[in-house]
Amino acid sequence: MSETVFYILSGFIIVFSVLTVTSRKILRAAVYLLFVLLGTCGFYFALEFNFLAAVQLTVYAGGIVVIIIFSIMLTSDLQDKLEAVQFRKIFFSLLAVLIGAAVCITTILNHSFPQVTDKVLDSSMRTIGLRLLSYNEGGFVLPFEVISILLLAAIVGSIIIAKKADSK
Amino acid sequence: MESGVGIQHFMILSTLMFFIGVYGFLTRKNLITILLSVELILNSVNINFVAFNKFLYPENLGGHFFAMFVIAVAATEVSVAIAIIISLYRKLKMIDVENVNEMKY
What we know:
Distance between the termini of chain A: 62 Å
Number of domains of chain B: 1
Number of domains of chain A: 2
Strand content of chain B: under 5%
Largest sheet of chain A: none
Helix content of chain B: over 70%
Number of strands of chain A: 0
CATH class of the largest domain in chain A: Mainly Alpha
Number of strands of chain B: 0
CATH superfamily of the largest domain in chain A: NADH-ubiquinone/plastoquinone oxidoreductase chain 6, subunit NuoJ
Structural class of chain A: mainly alpha
Shape of chain A: globular
CATH architecture of chain B: Orthogonal Bundle
Number of helices of chain A: 6
Oligomer: heterodimer
Structural class of chain B: mainly alpha
CATH topology of chain B: Helix Hairpins
Order of helices and strands of chain A: HHHHHH
CATH class of chain B: Mainly Alpha
Helix content of chain A: over 70%
Radius of gyration of chain B: 18 Å
CATH architecture of the largest domain in chain A: Up-down Bundle
């Protein structure tokens, strides 16, 4: 992927991330999050992970954002603005965040990553399917099954939690 | 890689995104906006996984699969969190974190 594409996409992502956490209209924050997820999907396409990009589009942008927007409509008045954050809170949060980011970025810049050039990435649909259901080395069948049980438990749990308490 | 974009570019981008999410997590009061910040954090971790897979271990797809599993965990987390938020809203008629200190049923 070329540098131009990288900088355009990362600028897009950073701008919309900042808008997501600072916007005072809650529905707009959700839509900005959708743009962040679409930018990430662009990265996956550029890095040749086509299947992952499709999953990102359908599950994240199609499913999660829609469910968040529904719950916003159920619980908030869309005309309302969120109350402004106190200056003290902004100051200390910003301090913590900047220190953390500075530590991480200096670590990343000082570490030399090994260059791998002789191997090629194979992310075709066939390889993904074989790896996902293989129990040999490099196979992922155990986490796949664990995730399926987790999804089932989450579905049942959220129905139980969100249903109206019965009136005895 | 034929061009100058390396793994460090991706890691710095995901660090920035992660800490923007942390900032939102610390400053927001509404539960749904806190959930949006958590989504930002999970998404930045996914970028990191994918970049590691692409640049350091291209011969196996570990980072790819873990990004997929993180997406699935994020979906379950959002569904349970929104169920909790909706049932809280039925009880309290508002969803600010200061008022949610009485979660006992």
